[in-house]
Amino acid sequence: ANTTMMTIFVNTASGPAFTNPGPLCQNDAPVSLPTTSNNGISGTWSPASIDPSGGSDVTATFTPDNGECANAVMMTVAVNTATDPTFNNPGPLCQNDAPVSLPTTSNNGISGTWSPASIDPSGGNDVTATFTPDNGQCANTVMMTVAVNTASDPTFNNPGPLCENDAPVSLPTTSNNGISGTWSPASIDPSGGNDVTATFTPDAGQCANTVMMTVAVNTATDPTFNNPGPLC
Q1: Buried b / exposed e along 14-26 (16+ C-beta atoms within 10 A)
Q2: What is the pLDDT of residues 19-58, one digit of tens each?
Q3: Cα–chain center distance at 27
């Protein structure tokens, strides 16, 4: 028999190529990985999808199907930790305060929307609002509760009833329950012979209501007598 030669062809194993889906945000939905590479190599991933909910980078391994002259490859997908937007709480508010608009950008630069968009304290109860970050930011939805204080009614001792002939009575600038403010008018003048209503306005910075007080005024009566005359 003759000596013969045989050449065995060996193909270089290909590296499957993929587009990395990262970086992902911790709040993103899981991302399925393709079972065919950019350069046409089929196979399976372990894990089959990238779940970013753990907040850490995820590494997956691609194993080519049998019969593919290709290498197993690993891919690490970066995962960013979601940030909590931070805000200055405008409370506590008073029930009598005007509604307060909430900012659409957080202290740490995250834009989004509030629901509700402003805090209306008129109901006299604490108000909770929810902030939803705009798309494309790796940030969490957060809630903020703003305390609302119920407005107090200043209380006073009514100086009436007065008589039409009495001297004017000055009204106190601090209520029985410690609320300071001003009266209009500042005193009750009964000389007109009619009931007098005065309005008390609390000083700024106190969670208190404006109140009115009506002081009764009695009309002075003329004494009547039987005249004994005419006498001689």
Answers
A1: bebebeebbebbb
A2: 999 999 999 999 999 999 999 999 999 999 999 999 999 9
A3: 21
Residue-wise pLDDT tens digits, 69-118: 999 999 999 999 999 999 999 999 999 999 999 999 999 999 999 999 99
pTM, two decimal places: 0.77
Q: What is the DSSP string of the chain?
A: ------PPP-PPPB--------PEETTSPPEEPPSB-TTS-BEEEESSEE-GGGSS-EEEEEEEPTT--B--EEEEE-EEPPBPP-----PPEETTSPPEEPPSB-TTS-BEEEESSEE-GGGSS-EEEEEEEPTTS-B--EEEEE-EEPPBPP------PEETTSPPEEPPSB-TTS-BEEEESSEE-GGGSS-EEEEEEEPTTS-B--EEEEEPEEPPPPP---------
Q: How many CA atoms lie within 13 A of 18 on its CB side?
A: 26
Q: For residues 225 and 232, give the distance between their C-alpha atoms in angstroms, rounded to a whole number.
A: 20
